[in-house]
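The instructor's notes for this session suggest beginning with a concrete chain rather than abstract definitions. Hand out the sequence below and ask the class to guess, before any prediction is shown, which regions might be ordered.
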Amino acid sequence: MSKPKVQYKLHDRISHNVDSEYDIVFDKCTPIIDGVSQKEEQLLMRYTKNGNTINNAPAFSEIDMVKTIVKLYNSTLVSVEAKEVLRKGITKLSSEE
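After discussion, reveal the predicted structure:
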C-alpha cells in the first residue's frame, strides 16, 4: 500500500520573522488526502526560508498544538525570559477583550 498524498488548502497564517532569511509560521489548513478534502481543519507549524514555505512539517489539531505550548511553558526547556514574553502576550490579549 502506498503512502497517502497529503496537500493542504491554506486558510490563514500568522508569522514571526526570525531573521533576514527565516520566519516561523502557524498555518490553519484543510488537509486534502488523495484528492479528497477533509472536514476538520488542522494547524501546521512550519517555517519559511526566503519567503518560501518549507512543506515537510506534520499537521496537528489546534488543541494539541496549544496543549504542547502549555507543556513547554511549564517545562524547564525555555528560559524565564521566554516565558515572560508568552505571559505578557496572553495578558495583553486578555485586557483587550
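Then share the key points. The longest strand covers residues 6-17. The chain has a mean pLDDT of 88.
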